[in-house]
Amino acid sequence: AANISIGAFYHHYASKQELVNESFMIYDELLEDNHTKYNLEDPLDSLKAILLDQTAFVVSFDKQLVIEYYKSILLSMNKQAVSWERAYYRHVLNCTKKAVNDGLIKDGYTSEYLAKFFIKFIRGNIINWCLNESDTIFLQETESEIDLLLKLFKSQ
Q1: pTM for the full model?
Q2: Which domain holds residue 89?
Q3: Contact 108, 117 (CB under 8 A)
């Protein structure tokens, strides 16, 4: 346990929801600070890196905290966590736009569809991680699955 009293918690945050609303922005700030590490010259590699970094960031936290985070998102009327204005969503969309524009993706898929698909895939994987007792190779499996999905969408 972190040995944080309830009083100390509410001194910094008016509610658990406020804490949750701020917590998902931490990754976005890190992404904005480090965006140059994602080279859009290779948008599919950049997409993979962003998705894996997001996954690694989330699963670096205690599972129970991540569960509480998702519960709060589901119960909240504030859907800022799933806003396309978030840096994470924008960067994923930028990668898929570049990949589609560069002809790297099979015909019939829009950049918006691909961005939604990959974001939902990562969210689903993280929720699955929350549901399992122990998943020591979760990040490696997620990377392999992203590679498989990219192969399916890639033009020949």
Answers
A1: 0.83
A2: 16-153
A3: no
